[in-house]
Amino acid sequence: METNTNREHKNSVFSKLFGTPEILRELYSALGGVDVPADAIVDINTLSEVLYMEQINDLSFTIDDKIIVLIEHQSTINDNVPIRLLMYIARVYEKILDCENLYQKKLVKIPTPQFFVLYNGKEDYPDHKELRLSAAFKNVEGFTLLGTDGLPLELVVQVYNINHGRNPEILAKSETLGSYSVFMGKVDEYKKELPLDKAIKAAVKYCIENDILKQFLREHASEVINMLTDNITVEQFVAIRCREAREDALEEGRGAGRKEEREKWQSIVADKDAEIARLRELQPL
């Protein structure tokens, strides 16, 4: 079956904008509530090589080989974020560590992980929320580990709402994040009256004229516009794959001539089409 969906990875504006050590120092200083020295060594180790696109997570990086930070940019929040980040951090450790050393007697020290999600969706969401992996555990009430009241595994994600006007302290400490929030807000504002491509162009023009991400947008305006109009999110990709599977089954149903089966899959495909359209409206910038 043929599909027009572009499966090649295209960087998001978010990951491109925050893809340098200097900006990541600034961003982590704001999110972590610390001042990262200008000479701190930042190594970017964002994951790649996955089926649906080359890049699997938005940002991951180490600071002086002591702290490892995973940051995801989301337009929708679901309770499975900690599970996904658990899988990401395992892959990142596998990427940065010499696995052979794990079998030596001496303890191997690893960077301390921290997890953040930056939310800019349309649905109402608090300024800050904490998501925990343990919320997904089955039958944990009353569970104890070797006589303690702790759990054998935990992962805590700090979620911050970065829509314009939210979390002003964080946005003020990271000028880039604050400017990004303004840019996204202008796109949303213009989308109310203009088609998406024209809304993006209007937002780019406004921000350049008002010295908001001025240099970045001047250098990458065309690329930014293409990213925002052509890029697909993880959620969109999953929905598209589901639709393709349904269409395959629908085709089989046609071949078999089963009327009830065809009608069933036609309904499913229609529902998936509606879901894809909704996800495109929620596409993160």
What's this model, at a glance?
It contains nine helices and six strands, in the order ααβββαβββαααααα.
Task: Give a structural overview.
- Residues 1-10 have low confidence and may be disordered.
- This protein has a six-stranded mixed beta sheet, with helices on both faces.
- With 285 residues, the protein is of the alpha/beta class.
- α5 packs across α6 and α8 (234-256) packs antiparallel against α9.
- It has a domain at 1-161.
- It has helices at 13-17, 21-32, 81-96, 168-173, 175-191, 196-209, 214-230, 234-256, 259-281, and strands spanning 42-44, 59-63, 67-74, 112-119, 128-132, 156-161.
- It is globular.
Residues in β-strands, percent: 5-15%
Strand arrangement, largest sheet? 1-2-3-4-6-5
What's the mean pLDDT score? 80
The number of strands is: 6
Low-confidence stretches: 1-10
Features:
285 residues, alpha/beta, 12% strand, 47% helix, single chain
Question: What's the helix and strand layout?
Answer:
Blueprint (H helix, E strand, L loop, with lengths): L12 H5 L3 H12 L9 E3 L14 E5 L3 E8 L6 H16 L15 E8 L8 E5 L23 E6 L6 H6 L1 H17 L4 H14 L4 H17 L3 H23 L2 H23 L4
Parallel strand pairs: 3-4, 4-6
Antiparallel strand pairs: 1-2, 2-3, 5-6
